[in-house]
């Protein structure tokens, strides 16, 4: 029988490896930018066209590569970061596996230009699908320029799975922000389709965060600093009042490497216990410095998950540090982290004995006496004080009895028959609520969650939140598709601040949002000015509404307009629907019932969950059967 196992060709092995390393254009951006950081660059420029599908170019002023290294870097498992297995536990660089460039070259047209500082000439290499096309000598500046064109040109199936340009560019921005936040000492620039999206000069950590997420971020930050033998912590956390519904501005960095850790996130949420509203997420930018031998970063292909030697100690230190910072800066209630020196006892009083205060009492004083004589008595110290010298003789007839003169005649003049007494409201009810049901009511509310309405065959129970979601969903979807939404104009325009990446998504959704009733006056890279709102949207809810909409659409923005409108209508319906725990009047209950059955599909909510159930008389009879 012939053998069936054989070695794969290199180009096939590289394409398989690319499936792990290169999932989308953002994966290429991450690998190339991290290589530029490892090369010691002080200035990194990222140029992207069509969300990376057409071009991804990274230009740095790092140390560059020699002719041999330039050719060898495209080989599989060729790396300058490690020499032996033990080096995996003392890593100080970003990449170390040596698969990135080989995988990228297998699925794209790659052009690399590199030159070392001490060399007069550089190297220019062109590779297409793992095949070397040319290698020439060229006059180049110091550093490396890496261009990746036509990503997935030889794997059409992978290219077809890519999302819209807006979604793919959002992932590129996410990876760019993570590297830029980890290295504030490097000047980063990002250009998309010829437009400058980010220009982040060298700065300190706080200024880098403000430059990435907008000027309003500065007032939200609370510094965190802690140094122990296990871990050194520095960075910032957000004030509780600025917490958001989504988890966009949450960053962990361990030894300048971005990681994801649900365990450490739970420690932060524990530190915020009692300070956040339900469902809110705080912002944090935390940088942990730990000894490299105490962590393992080689447990995940993307190296975004790591394992600590002592997870419990990390948890306790992180939670305590954040609670201390929130209390120290008067964000949370405190006992005493800083003592007020003005309340301390002066040093010269330290050895001094306390003196008992003297109490002076006039034993002859009578407050009911008609006349208080003026007399003086001497204190123990020999000084005399005069009491009662300002009092005059008073007529005994003009004393307390004069206070009640005229009251009897005034009481006789009051006509008691004209007085109307307020009727006492009966607050007790069978269901323990203030709303008392009468026989004429068609609906009533249970636990501020369900609406019960009688029908011919028995009764119907509506889930008020889901029913209202269905009503609002069909209203918004009709308004978006028919372009006839009503809008309420604001007396003063509303100015909202968003990060540059969030503003990109809002501009993409602008036409659909305007069809729901929003009126936008101006849009910049960070500021959104709104002069009109949909009729059923309150001004105080606009910020939360847009944040939840961006969170729902983040990473899943549909390409066609109908799917986009559908997602917007669902998100707004979920945000604006009456929530469980909201008391509804009888008219509001009847309005929900009537509006629900006027919908095209009243049976389920926009998220395919039942909106109501029915119980027939026979079902009730079975319940009471003996």
Automatic annotation (TrEMBL):
One of its GO terms (cellular component) is mismatch repair complex. InterPro entries: DNA_mismatch_repair_CS, DNA_mismatch_repair_MutL, DNA_mismatch_S5_2-like, HATPase_C_sf, MutL/Mlh/PMS, MutL/Mlh/Pms-like, MutL_C, MutL_C_dimsub. Residues 442-584 form the MutL C-terminal dimerisation domain. GO terms for biological process: mismatch repair. Keywords: DNA damage, DNA repair. GO terms for molecular function: ATP binding; ATP hydrolysis activity; ATP-dependent DNA damage sensor activity; mismatched DNA binding. Pfam families: DNA_mis_repair, HATPase_c_3, MutL_C. It comes from the Bacteria. The keyword Cell division does not apply. Residues 209-327 form the DNA mismatch repair protein S5 domain. This protein is involved in the repair of mismatches in DNA. It is required for dam-dependent methyl-directed DNA mismatch repair. May act as a 'molecular matchmaker', a protein that promotes the formation of a stable complex between two or more DNA-binding proteins in an ATP-dependent manner without itself being part of a final effector complex. Belongs to the DNA mismatch repair MutL/HexB family. This is DNA mismatch repair protein MutL. It comes from Flavobacterium cauense R2A-7.
């Amino acid at each position: 029988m012939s053998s069936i196992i054989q070695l794969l060709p290199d180009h096939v092995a590289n394409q398989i490896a690319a499936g792990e390393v290169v999932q989308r254009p953002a994966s290429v951006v991450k690998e190339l930018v991290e290589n530029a950081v490892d090369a010691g660059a002080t200035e990194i420029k990222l140029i992207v066209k069509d969300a990376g599908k057409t071009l991804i170019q990274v230009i740095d002023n790092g140390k560059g590569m020699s002719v041999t290294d330039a050719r060898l870097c495209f080989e599989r498992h060729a790396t300058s970061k490690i020499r032996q297995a033990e080096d995996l536990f003392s890593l100080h660089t970003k990449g170390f596996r040596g698969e990135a460039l080989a995988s990228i070259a297998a699925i794209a047209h790659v052009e690399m230009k590199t030159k070392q500082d001490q060399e007069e000439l550089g190297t220019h290499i062109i590779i297409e699908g793992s095949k070397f096309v040319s290698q020439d000598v060229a006059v180049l500046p110091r550093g490396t320029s890496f261009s990746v064109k036509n990503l997935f040109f030889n794997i059409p199936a992978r290219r077809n799975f890519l999302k819209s340009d807006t979604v793919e560019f959002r992932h590129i921005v996410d990876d760019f922000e993570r590297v830029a936040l980890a290295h504030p000492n490097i000047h980063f620039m990002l250009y998309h389709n010829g437009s400058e999206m980010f220009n982040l000069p060298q700065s300190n950590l706080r200024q880098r965060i403000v430059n990435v997420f907008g000027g309003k971020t500065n007032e939200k930050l609370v510094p965190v600093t802690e140094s122990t033998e296990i871990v050194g912590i520095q960075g910032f956390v957000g004030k509780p009042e600025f917490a958001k519904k989504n988890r966009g501005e949450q960053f962990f960095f361990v030894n300048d490497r971005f990681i994801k850790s649900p365990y450490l996130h739970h420690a932060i949420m524990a530190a915020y216990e009692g300070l956040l509203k339900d469902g809110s997420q705080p912002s944090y930018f935390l940088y942990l410095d730990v000894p490299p031998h105490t962590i393992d970063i080689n447990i995940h292909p993307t190296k975004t998950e790591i394992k600590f030697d002592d997870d419990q100690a990390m948890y306790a230190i992180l939670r305590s540090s954040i609670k201390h910072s929130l209390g120290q800066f008067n964000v949370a209630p405190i006992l005493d982290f800083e003592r007020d020196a003005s309340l301390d006892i002066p040093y010269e009083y330290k050895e001094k004995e306390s003196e008992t205060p003297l109490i002076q009492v006039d034993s002859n004083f009578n407050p009911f006496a008609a006349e208080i004589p003026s007399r003086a008595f001497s204190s123990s110290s020999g000084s005399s004080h005069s009491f009662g010298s300002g009092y005059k003789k008073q007529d005994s007839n003009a004393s307390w009895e004069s206070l009640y003169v005229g009251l009897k005649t005034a009481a006789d003049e009051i006509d008691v028959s004209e007085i109307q007494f307020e009727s006492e409201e009966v607050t007790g009810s069978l269901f323990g609520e203030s709303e008392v049901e009468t026989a004429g009511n068609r609906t009533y509310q249970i636990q501020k969650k369900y609406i019960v309405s009688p029908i011919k065959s028995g009764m119907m129970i509506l889930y008020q939140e889901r029913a209202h979601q269905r009503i609002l969903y069909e209203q918004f979807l009709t308004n978006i598709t028919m372009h006839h939404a009503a809008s309420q104009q604001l007396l003063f325009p509303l100015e909202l601040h968003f990060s540059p990446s969030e503003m990109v998504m809002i501009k993409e959704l602008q036409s659909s949002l305007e069809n729901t009733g929003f009126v936008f006056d101006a849009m910049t890279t960070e500021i959104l000015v709104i002069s009109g709102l949909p009729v059923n949207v309150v001004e105080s809810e606009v910020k939360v509404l847009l944040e939840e909409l961006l969170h729902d659409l983040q990473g899943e923005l549909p390409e066609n307009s109908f799917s986009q409108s559908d997602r917007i209508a669902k998100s707004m319906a979920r945000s604006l629907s009456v929530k469980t725990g909201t008391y509804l009047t009888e008219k509001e209950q009847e309005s929900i019932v009537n509006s629900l059955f006027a919908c095209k599909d009243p049976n389920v909510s926009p998220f395919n969950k039942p909106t109501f159930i029915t119980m027939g008389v026979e079902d009730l009879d079975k319940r009471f059967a003996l």
